[in-house]
Design goal:
Number of helices: 25
Distance between the termini: 32 Å
EC number: 6.3.2.2
Structural class: alpha+beta
Bound molecules: adenosine-5'-diphosphate, magnesium ion
InterPro entries: GCS (IPR004308), Gln_synth/guanido_kin_cat_dom (IPR014746)
GO biological process, one term: glutathione biosynthetic process
Largest sheet: 8 strands, antiparallel
Catalytic activity: L-cysteine + L-glutamate + ATP = gamma-L-glutamyl-L-cysteine + ADP + phosphate + H(+)
Shape: globular
Radius of gyration: 25 Å
Protein name: Glutamate--cysteine ligase
């Protein structure tokens, strides 16, 4: 969540008067950092994940699950543990942070992991430990769960309260939601202010509509019933609402959609993020670009959200929901009554400067390109394993979506010698207003602080984030954050995805792979990734030739299934031509002993075979680490092949098969209780995944890609 400053937050009417002040000083702060660290080099790979949990309370007598609002109390004690360890001069086991909802906790490793590949084998144990530490501070009946979305969030009586049930307050307060009480927001001043100022800036509540899953007994068209909280409204408005088929007091609710009206529906979801430090800015830019292409692929693989507000959805992911949940654009910015001269009718868009295509929580809008060393050096300057960026694959044609940016900020950055692409990136982030402005922090020392810069930067919640070094620390370098993944139910799954991603970054830089895809196609992929069962049903745009020998010359973008992208053409085709029996792999599916190159047969190599090839070449891991990594790769590969279900598919199956289910898309409290219980029991039993065992042998992905060499054959450990 970036910086959590303390102070007096300004209400929107006041805060907005300081928008320019924050932007102007924020850019000065960025330039101070830039001038200090633009040619910083020889940083090492550091990386770390972020896991978000929910505290779920089980009422076994009533067979009901609710969200517990005690996460904030627990957080204080967990943070005290962390502080104690630091005071003793020890590395804490975990680092804890507040999250938007009072039922959420975020935990990262106590310290980031380093570049030695053997460290990859430690993360799973650390994730288990974090879960234990958090769980140890809970009360009987309370359980720490890593669910992307609590299935009953926003249904009647979904929050555990000491006395009376907590009720939403549609006519007053912060959310003014029909479904979510304000009690769900973490008390820290930042969070309620964020929610309130988004609503006020937007001039109305956020509107989230998710297509409903139509089952045999789901009415067609399906329409939102009027919510019980209408009772809080006056009698005339209520009577009017109850007499219309589509509840009229829900003007934003669409037919055949599950309607949600509060920031909590999105920011109250949990996700898995991974941050990487690059050896210098050029490598960070390279990783930002190539990983951006992978954000939809990892979203589809990690899909875990088939239920919203107690209804089965026709999507499997949270992304569009969270995007809409913090969409603070004014009606004008969203396109209403926006004149040709780019001016907006004052009545609907006070404060509007631009027409803006996306929410501030959305996919990236421009690639950064590699940049050029500003100190005139030609040598890479990174000796670490897999660090180099000699080949410039970037082309302007890949930046093919409209980029709205602030021309004055752009010019300011250009005048300070920031190159065009990076200047456009920040001038784009800076089209947004700061949402939470603290009175005490209006005047800052722009050399020592980056608070104004972070204010804008960390409320641009995009699929990737480009993180400059902080203003004050001398030992943190340029980092990129991968932000699209959904949290997984088990520690094994979360570790597998985090580790696979780290290995993919090493593979990209070591083999100098080219993943560039026009951004319009990346956006199309992000939309497809969220659809129901996308791993097995959808295709995704991808670059067909990604290896260095023709990665730059053969511009061929094709639609491929996730299986082919992850496991390679050979594995995917073999599987298609002869479905595997449940009892092992038929001999005809064994991989050829000597694989041919992709050049020879238009064969896409697959990310997992490339990672295997990288690991072979790196020769840097102990056999025990390698066994652990192979197991993660088999898991990712099996999920990509559809042999293991995503969490979303597994959850959906459990609900569809529940004896109480009436085939009407409705998830009852008992169904939710049984589901959460089944998840918790299996997680506690220590299973790797809920949908089946990780295949012990997956010969199809044990392929190696010939002819690839590490750029730095003698890595420094
Ligand atoms: P944010 O919420 O802003 O994304 P967090 O501090 O919550 O940031 O998490 C960032 C992640 O980055 C953590 O896993 C942390 O361990 C990791 N990390 C910390 N320092 C570095 C570094 N120098 N390089 C890479 N990762 C780091
Ligand atoms: Mg978080
Ligand atoms: Mg964080
Ligand atoms: Mg969050
Ligand atoms: Mg983060």
């Amino acid at each position: 969540m970036g910086l959590l400053s303390l102070g007096t937050p300004l209400p929107w009417a006041e805060a907005k008067q300081y928008s320019d002040h924050v932007r102007q000083n924020g850019i000065v702060q960025f330039l101070n950092i830039w001038n200090r660290v633009k040619s910083r080099r020889r940083d090492k790979l550091y990386w770390g994940d972020e896991i978000e949990y929910m505290v779920v309370h089980f009422d076994h007598d009533a067979q009901k699950v609710r969200l517990s609002l005690r996460a904030s109390d627990v957080l204080e004690r967990l943070q005290a543990l962390e502080a104690d360890a630091l005071a003793r001069g020890e590395a804490p086991e975990a680092s804890w942070k507040p999250e938007f909802a009072r039922y959420m906790l975020e935990a990262t490793p106590g310290l980031p992991y380093g570049s030695h590949l053997d460290e990859l084998a430690q993360i799973e144990a650390n994730m288990r430990r974090r879960r234990q530490l958090g769980q140890a501070h809970l009360r009987p009946g309370e359980v720490l769960m890593s669910l992307t979305n609590f299935p009953m969030l926003g249904t009647d009586d979904f929050l555990r309260a000491a006395f009376e049930p907590l009720r939403p307050t549609p006519a007053a307060g912060i959310f003014q939601s029909f479904f979510v009480p304000d009690d769900a927001i973490t008390g820290h001043a930042r969070f309620p202010t964020l929610a309130k100022n988004i609503r006020e800036r937007r001039t109305g509540k956020v509107a989230i509509n998710v297509p409903i899953f139509h089952d045999t007994h789901t009415p067609r068209p399906w329409r939102e019933p009027c919510p019980p909280s209408l009772a809080a409204l006056d009698a005339a408005r209520r009577a009017q609402a109850l007499h219309t088929p589509l509840c009229e007091l829900l003007p934003d609710a669409l037919e055949d959609h599950i309607y949600m009206d509060a920031m909590c529906f999105g920011m109250g979801c949990s996700c898995l993020q991974v941050t990487f430090q690059a050896c210098r800015i050029e490598e960070a830019r390279k990783l930002y670009d190539h990983l951006a292409v992978l954000t939809p692929v990892f979203l589809a693989l990690s899909a875990g959200t088939p239920v919203f507000r107690g209804h089965l959805a026709d999507v499997d992911c949270r992304w569009n929901v969270i995007s809409a949940s913090v969409d603070d654009r004014t009606p004008c910015e969203r396109g209403a009554r926006h004149n040709a001269d780019r001016r907006c009718d004052a009545a609907v868009g006070s404060g509007t400067r631009f027409k803006i295509a996306k929410s501030r929580y959305d996919s990236i809008d421009s690639y950064l390109g590699p940049g050029h060393p500003t100190d005139g050096s030609e040598t890479p300057g990174c000796t670490e394993l897999g660090s180099h960026y000699e080949t410039d694959y970037y082309r302007d044609a890949y930046n093919d979506i409209e980029l709205t940016y602030d021309p004055e900020i752009y010019q300011r950055l250009r005048d300070a010698s920031v190159d065009e692409l990076l200047a456009k990136h920040y001038a784009h982030l800076f089209i947004r207003d700061p949402l939470v402005v603290f009175r005490e922090l209006l005047d800052q020392d722009n050399v020592k602080s980056s608070d104004h810069f972070e204010n804008i930067q960390s409320t641009n919640w995009q699929t990737m984030r480009f993180k400059p070094p902080p203003a004050t620390s001398s030992d943190i370098g340029w980092r990129v954050e991968f932000r699209s993944m959904e949290i997984q139910l088990t520690d094994f799954e979360n570790a597998a995805f985090a580790v696979f991603l780290v290995l993919v970054t090493r593979m990209i830089v070591s083999f100098n792979v080219n993943l560039y895809l026009p951004l319009s196609q990346v956006d199309e992929n992000l939309a497809r990734a969220q659809r129901r069962d996308a791993v097995r049903q959808e295709t995704f745009w991808f670059r067909r030739h990604i290896l260095p020998k023709d990665g730059n010359t053969r511009e061929h973008f094709a639609e491929m299934g996730i299986d082919e992208i992850i496991n390679g053409t050979r594995a995917a085709q073999a599987r298609k031509s002869r479905p595997e029996s449940p009892h092992g792999t038929p001999s005809s599916l064994r991989p050829p002993t000597t694989a041919t190159t992709d050049d020879e047969a238009d064969v896409f190599p697959g990310l997992v075979p490339l990672v295997h090839t990288f690991l072979d070449a790196a020769q840097q891991v102990t056999p025990s680490t390698r066994r652990t990594l192979d197991r993660y790769l088999r898991f990712v590969s099996a999920r990509a092949a559809g042999r293991l279900p995503t969490n979303a598919m597994w959850i959906r199956q459990q609900l569809l098969r529940h004896p109480d289910y009436r085939h009407d898309s409705v998830v009852t409290p008992t169904m939710a209780y049984d589901l959460c219980r089944a998840i918790h029991d299996q997680v506690e039993a220590g299973v790797d995944t809920l949908g089946g065992d990780v295949p012990e042998l997956e010969p199809l992905v044990a392929q190696r890609i010939p002819g690839l060499q590490l750029r730095h054959p003698s890595p420094q450990p």
